[in-house]
Design goal:
It is a single chain. 49% of the residues lie in helices and 13% in strands. By secondary structure, it is an alpha+beta fold. It has 3 domains: 101 residues, Acyl-CoA dehydrogenase/oxidase, N-terminal domain (Butyryl-Coa Dehydrogenase, subunit A, domain 1, Orthogonal Bundle); 118 residues, Butyryl-CoA Dehydrogenase, subunit A, domain 2 (Beta Barrel), CATH 2.40.110; 125 residues, Up-down Bundle (Butyryl-CoA Dehydrogenase, subunit A, domain 3). The strands form 2 sheets. A 4-stranded mixed β-sheet has the order 1-4-5-8, with helices on one face. It is globular, with a radius of gyration of 21 Å.
Length: 378
């Protein structure tokens, strides 16, 4: 794919991401230089429409960029993917006032948006939430609750927050697995709004350590109807929107698999191992796996839109599995060097493992696939 010329894929940008990935893995915090380079690059506005100051790129171009970023800095790539997933929701469901309020902040000021959805003790399907929004006597919504495992939380400029609304009727949950539930809403909330509290320290995770994944607390935060992006059945539609468009977390897994493959190739060239037939064969197998995963991601946007959500879940499972498999193969190729704590393959492997647990996590994808698949489909 020929990416638009604005993509800052120059050596300085890439080196900033690469060195930042190593620092972030050591510190467990977002690398400041990488985040600054990302904000200045304009990439945060790549999916913002041109009439709101962005580049107007489609999901195919975004997936390709996210993959390239993931090769150098998977934590930044996961932040960009989830940011783009919010952008497309604002574009689709936002009022003109909301678009004019939020999108230029992204496109012109390089602001970063994070999703605040997961909660301590709640299931991955987000169907039951303890974070609520209720109207007070003056008609203002009051948001209360806490979120965890929010990617980019420690550095986000604003959040899209999934909340439970007061039940207006008896809600009968469907028997089959679903993602999100009735009587829920999505609000856009400034990180600096009164009552929003973000602990400064990121969660001490084993993978994606530079993604700023943390907690967010909403302590009686006042929000209005103008801050509500959508509610009711539109909320579950909005949750699935990136999948319907073909924007996929699988792009991050492809980038990770490519990074692992490149690591094995550099190792072979530095030690004259390419003359070894067994090594070449194993290296070829990882190249096939990377290319196949990339093709699956490309097919989401190039193929028919029919049942794209189901295919997106399949791609999430297959690409994240590929990322793990390629990392294991490469560690075997590296021999004892691959088991040194400081070796690059260990950071890449831990990041690949982390993608399996990121939304929707692989086990939920499998449940959703099983619920949607019928003998007739096959």
């Amino acid at each position: 794919m020929n990416l638009p010329g604005e993509f800052p894929a120059g050596p300085e940008f890439r080196e900033t991401l690469r060195t930042g990935a190593r620092r972030a893995h050591d510190t467990g915090e977002v690398d400041a230089a990488s985040l600054d380079a990302l904000r200045r690059s304009g990439l945060l506005g790549m999916m913002v429409p041109r009439d709101h100051g962005g580049w107007g790129w489609d999901p195919a171009a975004a997936n390709a960029v996210i993959e390239k970023i993931a090769v150098d800095n998977p934590s930044i790539a996961i932040m960009v993917y989830l940011h783009c997933a919010v952008v497309v929701r604002i574009v689709k469901y936002g009022t003109e006032e909301q678009k004019n309020r939020w999108l230029p902040r992204i496109a012109r000021r390089g602001q970063l948006v994070a999703s605040a959805w997961s909660e301590p003790g709640s299931a991955a399907d987000k169907r039951t939430l303890s974070t609520t929004a209720q109207r007070d006597a003056a008609g203002t919504w009051r948001m209360k609750g806490g979120k965890t495992f929010s990617t980019s939380a420690t550095v986000a400029d604003f959040f899209i927050v999934l909340v439970q609304l007061p039940a207006t009727h008896e809600t009968a949950h469907a028997a089959e697995p679903a993602y999100g539930g009735q009587d829920q809403a999505l609000f856009l909330v400034d990180a600096a709004a009164p009552g929003v509290h973000v602990p400064p320290d990121a969660l001490d995770m084993s993978g994606m350590r530079g993604s700023g994944t943390g907690m967010v607390q909403f302590q009686d935060v006042p929000v209005t109807d103008g801050d509500m992006l959508c509610s009711g059945s539109a909320t579950t539609e909005a949750i699935q929107l990136p999948h319907r468009l073909g924007l996929t977390l699988g792009a991050v897994s492809v980038g990770l698999a490519q990074a692992a493959h490149d690591t094995a190739l550099r190792h072979a060239r530095g030690r004259d191992l390419l003359a070894d037939e067994r090594y070449r064969r194993q290296l070829a197998s990882t190249e096939v796996a990377v290319r196949s995963a990339r093709a699956a991601v490309s097919d989401l946007t190039a193929g028919s839109a029919h049942d794209r959500v189901l295919r997106a879940y399949c791609v999430k499972v297959s690409t994240s599995t590929t990322g793990q498999t390629v990392c294991r193969t490469v560690r075997g190729l590296l021999g004892s060097a691959g088991y040194l704590h400081a070796h690059e393959i260990n950071r890449i492997s831990q990041d690949a493992d982390a993608v399996m647990h990121m939304g929707p996590p692989t086990h939920l994808c499998l449940d959703l696939i099983a619920a949607r698949s019928t003998p007739a489909d096959r």
